[in-house]
Amino acid sequence: MIAEGQILAVEKIKTKTEGRVVFDDILALSSEGQIKLGKPTVQGAKVRAKILEVFKEKKIKVVKFKSKSRYRRTTGHRQQKTKVLIEKIES
Asked: What is the mean predicted confidence (pLDDT) over 28-57?
């Protein structure tokens, strides 16, 4: 559930930094106690957001190991994320 003025971290969005983005595949919408469910999406609903920054999450380690065969592999992964500010929810 999101609200106007909320800051979210989502998967990396391929746009310019300090740009704007519009999400138009909205699955459910709640306003003034009424809930609209999409089939599969809510028609005409949009969420406008401002991109604040693109960053990487903390690194995680991935370890592969097989006993008695001297096989060990260690790799790492850092997921790229985009921080967005929800400006307006339109129904």
From this structure: 89
pLDDT (0 to 100) of residue 65: 96
Find out whether 26 and 46 touch, Cβ atoms under 8 Å.
Answer: yes
Running DSSP on this structure, what letter comes out for residue 38?
Answer: -
Say how far residue 52 (Cα) sits from the centre of its chain: 13
Tokens at 46, concatenated: 């949009």
Residue 4 near residue 90 (C-beta atoms within 8 A):
no
Residue 16 Rama label (left phi>0; alpha psi -120 to 50; beta): beta
* DSSP classification of residue 41: S
What is the model's pTM?
A: 0.75
